[in-house]
Design a protein that fits this description.
This protein has a 4-stranded mixed sheet. A 4-stranded mixed sheet has the order 4-3-2-9, with helices on one face. The chain has a 4-stranded antiparallel sheet with strand order 5-10-11-12. It is built from 10 helices and 12 strands. Helices cover 33% and strands 24% of the residues. A hairpin with a 2-residue loop joins strand 2 and strand 3.
Amino acid sequence: MKKTAEAVSLGHPDKMADYISSYILDRMIEQDAAVKYAVEVMVKDNTVVLGGEITGDVNLARINFYVTEALAEIGYDKFYSHRWGNYAINPEKLQIINLIGKQSADISQGVEQDGWGDQGVFVGYACQGTGNISREQYLAKKLCNALYEYALQNIHLGIDIKTQITLNELGGVETAVVAVPMLKDVDLTTFIVLALGEEPENIIVNGTGTYKYHSSVADCGVTGRKLACDFYETACPIDGGSPWTKDASKADVTLNFYARKLALEYLQDNDECFVYLSSCIGRSELPSTIVKTVKHSVVTKHSLQINKKPSEIITELGLNKPVFARLCKNGL
């Protein structure tokens, strides 16, 4: 059976939104490690909309500056905008709409008692192979990351990049699809082959023929819209929450990472491992904790006993520190 996976760069509008929120969260944690944070971001043209809640001993006066800093870290700085003009977001023309309020008292009363800040279902996955993710996803991410780093150094290439890899029935690369903005035509064939370590049967670069308008100028970016790329593509079910826009008291963040950690631990000599967790808002105990392993098509399931409180898991994973921008960039 053919298998396909997609990856997007940090310069993609949806990942721009994820990264802006994660970057602001890091700045809040630097001020107050116990800050409660949930901020969604929408980016369209040169307008950034921030909406959500922040509660803690923090100063929000520099929020606008943090947005500009986050964009610059992605690669959208004044030098980039001078080169690309109206084809991409221009941080010098940025308008920021701030709709940030404070966390609901109903939620905070449960979190303050070391309960989870939300309910939800979370799935962790691991398989044999490089990176312990599917081969098609590994190659899509590898190619995307290589193109992104190359585009940061190439005056003719833009950083809003998507890649897609299709494997044939034997596991070889049948088709590599690449979308990368170009001010001037650049032959990427050799680069793609070297980045993948093998020559695809088919290589498609910019399928429409022209790709200049990009970033939030060409596509509205919204947080949490690239979960398949951030998680495990089609290899595994995807839960309902994004890990990039919230502090670690929110189960969407911590239990996604914890499920992945457990999947890696229980993979052992199995072909695949799935870990299913669920949470209840305001409570520390997890209603369900299941491990499923697959080895030579034989499925085994068993329950886990997890008696750790949210604060213990957060500390174990190091999620009480300003690490979210890095995690957003690298993914699970």
